Amino acid sequence: MNDTDKAIELIRNAKKMVVFTGAGVSTNCGVPDFRGPNGLYATVGKRFNLPYPEAVFDIDYFRQNPLPFFQLSKEMFGEKIQPTIFHKYIAQVEAEGRLSILVTQNIDMLHTIAGNKKQIECHGTYSHATCTRCGKHYQLADIEETMSKGEIPYCSCGGVIKPDIVFFGENLPMEFYDIMQDPPEADLVLAAGTSLTVYPAAGFPLLYCKKKIPSILINMQNTQYDSYFDYVIHEDIDEFTKKVMKKS
Ligand code: OAD
Question: What is the spatial distance between Cα 158 and Cα 142, in angstroms, rounded to a whole number?
Answer without folding.
Answer: 15
